[in-house]
Every structure is written in structure tokens, then in C-alpha cells.
Design brief:
The complex is a heterodimer of chains A (113) and B (117).
Chain A lengths: L3 E4 L2 E5 L4 E7 L6 E7 L6 E7 L4 E4 L2 E6 L4 E6 L8 E7 L9 E2 L3 E6 L1
Parallel strand pairs in A: 2-11
Antiparallel strand pairs in A: 1-3, 3-8, 4-5, 4-9, 6-7, 7-8, 9-10, 9-11
Chain B lengths: L4 E3 L2 E4 L5 E6 L6 E7 L5 E8 L14 E5 L5 E5 L8 E8 L11 E2 L3 E5 L1
Parallel strand pairs in B: 2-10
Antiparallel strand pairs in B: 1-3, 3-7, 4-5, 4-8, 6-7, 8-9, 8-10
The chains are: A mainly beta (113), B mainly beta (117).
């Protein structure tokens, strides 16, 4: 089955700096890669996603890149703000498995004002 | 409400007791998922329902775990003879799309924090 590794497990950045989280996956058939943000006491919320036919996607301060050959994808947050502090999860899935997502272990991001 | 609703939000039980966790998905969502999140860990897939198809139970950790989805809407996750290692946050999610579409846009509830003493 699919295995998703996520690094780092914790990340502390100064407000205004950039944050980068990296994930690798094992199943070359995976074709959908979402990122979720989980705030304390809440369920994960989708913030951005990318499909295997796209190499990069951007939404305001958030961007995701995908390297299918290397089987890794990354989340980039620019101009970080205190409200970006949360746990971020990457995930992967493939059509044949429906929408069953395999998640990475999560990255706890702390943005220091 | 417009989101996925889970109840109870917190459940404390004694080892050996049975517990039931409830999930109300977003209206019209055909797919429903249960995930488990242990302290400081990622999300572990448990079970997946899609319409009237047989559920994908491949993630259930033991036969003490079972789940039902009645009428294609509300789902109940049951854990029998609870053990301390069952302590975790149990998250439910629903999705508009089903197998083969690959859209993967899951909407999560806030979870049930289960503590087994």
C-alpha cells in the first residue's frame, strides 16, 4: 500500500519568513496530493491540492510543487503570519482507491511574532 | 449545520466497555470515512463507505472495531471491549465524490476524543 513520509515534524519560523514542508510517497500510481491544516481542537481542513498532471499550484501565500519522477511534493508558505501556526498534513491517493487518503505524520508549525 | 458533525466530542470510558461514536456527514455527500488520530500522530484510515457499495474495512485494526452507515447518511463507529491503546481522536469525514473520481476533497468533523481508563 501507499506510504507517505513527511518532514520536518516540527518547524518554527519567524513571522514574515517562509516555511517549507516536504513529503515523499511510495505508490507511483498516486495521482492526487492534498494538504490539510489542523488547528487545535478542530478537524483537518483542506488548504490546497494538486493533481499529478500539474507540477505547481499557487493560492495566495500558499504553493505546492510536485515532482512525480522523484515521488515527492512540497508545501510552501510565504510571508508567514501567526494564524499560520497549526499542524499541517500532506496526503496521497489514487483513483483506483477512491478517495482513500494516506496521510503523512504531520508537521507542527509555529510562527513566532 | 453545514459541516460534518460528530458526537460526543469527548468520551471517557473504562477498559472493557463498549463505545459508540456518531457521525453526521454533510447532506448529499455520498462518501464517508473514519480516521483515527493518536496523540501527536498522523491520521490512520479505518473504514470507508460509498453509497450502497460494500464498505472498505481494510483499515480496521481488529475485530473489536465495526462501523455502520444507515440510509446512506449517519454513521456509527463501535468499539467493543475497549483497550487503553484505543485512546485517540476519531475523525469522520465526508466527500461529495466517490470511487474513480479521485477528487479527494474530504471535509472533516472536529472528532471525538476517546479516553480509555
Amino acid at each position: 500500500g501507499e506510504n507517505v513520509e513527511q518532514h520536518p515534524s516540527t518547524l518554527s519560523v519567524q513571522e514574515g519568513d517562509s516555511a517549507v514542508i516536504k513529503c515523499t510517497y511510495s505508490d507511483s500510481a498516486s495521482n492526487y496530493f492534498p494538504w490539510y491544516k489542523q488547528e487545535l481542537g478542530k478537524g483537518p481542513q483542506l488548504i490546497i491540492d494538486i493533481r499529478s498532471n500539474v507540477g505547481e499550484k499557487k493560492d495566495q501565500r500558499i504553493a505546492v510543487t510536485l515532482n512525480k519522477t522523484a515521488k515527492h511534493f512540497s508545501l510552501h508558505i510565504t510571508e508567514t503570519q501567526p494564524e499560520d501556526s497549526a499542524v499541517y498534513f500532506c496526503a496521497a491517493s489514487r483513483k483506483a482507491a477512491g478517495n482513500k487518503l494516506t496521510f503523512g505524520g504531520g508537521t507542527r508549525v509555529l510562527v513566532k511574532p | 449545520g453545514a459541516g460534518v458533525s460528530q458526537s460526543p466530542s469527548n468520551k471517557v470510558t473504562e477498559k472493557g466497555k463498549d463505545v459508540e461514536l456518531r457521525c453526521d456527514p454533510i447532506s448529499g455527500h455520498t462518501a464517508l470515512y473514519w480516521y483515527r488520530q493518536s496523540l501527536g500522530q498522523g491520521l490512520e484510515f479505518l473504514i470507508y463507505f460509498q453509497g450502497n457499495s460494500a464498505p472498505d474495512k481494510s483499515g480496521l485494526p481488529s475485530d473489536r472495531f465495526s462501523a455502520e452507515r444507515t440510509g446512506g447518511s449517519v454513521s456509527t463507529l463501535t468499539i467493543q471491549r475497549t483497550q487503553q491503546e484505543d485512546s485517540a481522536v476519531y475523525l469522520c469525514a465526508s466527500s461529495l465524490a466517490g470511487p474513480g473520481t479521485g477528487s479527494g476533497k474530504l471535509f472533516f468533523g472536529s472528532g471525538t476524543q476517546l479516553s480509555v481508563l
